[in-house]
Specification:
Helix content is 24%, strand content 26%. By secondary structure, the protein is an alpha+beta fold. The chain folds into two domains: 17-137, no CATH class; 141-327, no CATH class. The strands form three sheets. Strands 5, 6, 8, 9, 10, 11 and 12 form a seven-stranded mixed β-sheet that branches. Strands 1-2-3-14-13 form a five-stranded mixed β-sheet. It has a two-stranded antiparallel ribbon with strand order 4-7. Helix 2 (17-65) packs antiparallel against helix 3 (73-80). Residues 108-112 and 177-183 have low confidence and may be disordered.
Length: 333
């Protein structure tokens, strides 16, 4: 009997221990949940700030390339890319040809990260930041319409948005060939395709293969149809063409040495006979003259003018090309 009473007294002394344990565990769980919410907010804010930094760097870099640097663009884009519209942006232009934008949260009552669960343990507001750098310069590689132009055909007056209208003919005899005077018989201009009507090219020692023949490579009808539709609707067709300085070999064994990229605003063309392969190539067409017309049955030409052009690129930036009026702005970090 004594033992039973003793055990009962011991058990009564342990009453409430489970409640304390549960209370402690609840505090731990609530703290962990609060921390998870806070960390999630921080990651979400940083993602928004990174978007703002990326957009700001690209926008400011483009404004600088266009002639007037506008650092204030970064602030607006930092705010428009954050849910609370309460971000700051600092712009660094100290490196030539580069723009670095650093975004961060604002401390204060308007800050997204001020009223966190962590305030329950007297933690202060959290400042989160992000950074992006954009560079502008002549592209050193790319992909596009499989046609290469000689640098002797290239004509873009210095400091001018556009150059004079011109006709660039295929197999032009002595007028549109490289400085060496060489020409690839039957294959001037056309490049080997990497996919239908697309050639990947790069500046430097890698010579671009020639696709011989008077007509364009297969698969170009769709692209030409798109160009035609755009022009008939009053739009513009601007194409970045690789520009070569020398060519070598003949036929399928020929190649072009690419030095850079120039943008050609196309008015018309004659890449073949009938259908989408010829468009606005007579003297009576809008903007045309008899000297620009390309009407002969076997004539092949593209008509228009070189323009200065800046484009926001994507993917990896490949520098190294000569400045032929075309610039790409890309994020480099």
């Amino acid at each position: 009997m004594w033992r039973l009473v003793k055990k009962q007294r011991v058990a009564e002394g342990e009453r409430g221990a489970a409640g304390v344990t549960v209370a402690v565990m609840m505090l731990v769980l609530i703290g962990a949940g609060a921390m998870a919410v806070d960390v999630g907010q921080i990651y979400a804010e940083r993602s928004q700030l990174q978007n703002g930094a990326d957009a700001g760097a690209l926008a400011v870099a483009k404004s600088c390339k266009d002639g007037t640097c506008l650092p204030a663009l970064a602030d607006g884009l930092a705010n428009s890319n954050s849910n609370d519209a309460a971000s700051t942006a600092a712009v660094d232009l100290s490196v030539p040809g580069q723009v670095t934008v650093t975004t961060s949260t604002k401390n204060g009552s308007s800050s997204f990260l001020t009223n966190l669960f962590a305030n329950a343990i007297n933690a202060g507001p959290v400042t989160v930041g992000a950074q992006a750098t954009a560079a502008a310069g002549p592209p050193g590689g790319g992909s596009g319409f499989p046609l290469a132009l000689s640098d002797n055909c290239y004509n873009l007056a210095s400091g001018s948005q556009t150059a004079e209208a011109q006709k660039i003919s295929y197999k032009p005899g002595g007028t549109c060939t490289g400085p060496s005077g060489t020409q690839i018989p039957g294959g001037w201009g056309w490049l080997d395709e990497d996919s239908p009507c697309v050639a990947n090219t790069q500046v430097g020692t890698n010579d671009m293969g020639s696709d011989p023949g008077n007509n364009p490579p297969s698969g170009c009808a769709t692209i030409l149809g798109t160009w035609k539709t755009t022009l008939l609707a009053g739009g513009e067709v601007k194409v970045e063409f690789p520009v070569f300085d020398t060519s070598s070999g003949t036929g399928q064994g020929g190649s072009f040495h690419v030095i850079g990229y120039a943008t050609f605003k196309i008015w018309g063309w004659k890449f073949g006979n009938n259908g989408v392969y010829e468009f606005r190539n007579t003297g009576s067409d809008p903007g045309m003259t008899s000297s620009l017309a390309c009407t002969g049955g076997n004539d092949r030409c593209v008509i228009g003018q070189f323009v200065k052009y800046t484009v926001i690129g994507s993917g990896n930036y490949i520098p190294g090309g000569e400045d032929l009026g075309t610039s790409e702005i890309r994020l480099i970090k």
